[in-house]
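Example (one chain per record):
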Amino acid sequence: MKSAIIAALIGSAAAFAPAQTGKASTQLNAFEDELGAQPPLGFYDPFGMLSGDCSQERFDRLRYVEIKHGRIAQLAFLGQVVTRGGIHLPGPINYAGDSFDSFPNALAALFGP
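Predicted structure:
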């Protein structure tokens, strides 16, 4: 009887112990030390852009393109804020002589006021 109680206690204590798991090894561990990889995610590739072809050249190309697109998005946002603030570029926007001030802001420029 005592041995059954002791076995039950040991079994219940083991249920609350942390599970022992080994660290998974993948090809993406090559990029764990890159700038931007931080805990708890480490190298995060949600769309699997580097699955299969995991060369350093491809990684550098994707990082360059991401930075370029981020800078373009920042300039687009800045242009939207400046235009909504009422600051327009001087001069004509086309050869017909329309000025930048003649067009409304934001989506009204596309769909009308």
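Caption: The chain has a mean pLDDT of 80.
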